[in-house]
Structures are given as C-alpha cells and as structure tokens.
Amino acid sequence: MAEKQIEDRCRTYALKHGWSVLKLNPAGRIGTFDRLYLGPEGKVFFCEHKQPGGRKRRHQIIEQERLRRLGFTAEFCYTFALFVELFNQVRRPE
C-alpha cells in the first residue's frame, strides 16, 4: 500500500472516532511529521506515515527525539494496523 493510501486510511479512522487531524507542512522546516492527531481530553500524537519498507530520514529521527523530549508521542507508522495499535495506546493508556 502506498504512503498516501495509508495516511488517508489512518486519517479517516481517526475522524470516525471523533478526533481532529491536522496535516503538517510548515514552510522551511524539514523533518516535520505528516500528521498531528488531536483527541478528546487533550490526547495528542504525531505520526509520520511511511509505506512498508520506507526509510526514516535523519531529520525525521531528530524531530521524533525532540518531540519525545517535550513529552509528546511521535511515531512512524508503516501500516494501518500499526497506526490502530498506536491510536488505541494513546486513546486508552494503561
């Protein structure tokens, strides 16, 4: 499945569950994750969608580390199934 198809499917899933989804594309900033997912009760996570076998770029890894240091969840999702797992972890933490 292509990255765009994975991203669209994940976005649709989140919207159906009442979340807001923002496409991130700030000018002049490299490494920014694809999407910001905003849920009820202040639940938030960043997701960089990749097709299976897709490569993490150095700037994306640095951005992931920066977001995590700030206390955010930031993950790479290679499949819809991985996204659903992440979504459920953020939605209902243990």
Structure in a nutshell:
This protein is α+β, with helices and mostly antiparallel strands.
Can you give a write-up of this model?
A four-stranded mixed β-sheet has the order 1-2-3-4, with helices on both faces. The radius of gyration is 13 Å and the shape is globular. With 94 residues, the protein is an alpha+beta fold. The protein has three helices and four strands; from the N terminus they run αβββαβα. α2 links the parallel β3 and β4. The protein starts with a helix and ends with a helix. It has one domain: Trna Endonuclease, Chain: A, domain 1 (3-Layer(aba) Sandwich), CATH 3.40.1350.10. The model has no long low-confidence stretch (mean pLDDT 93). α1 runs parallel beside α3.
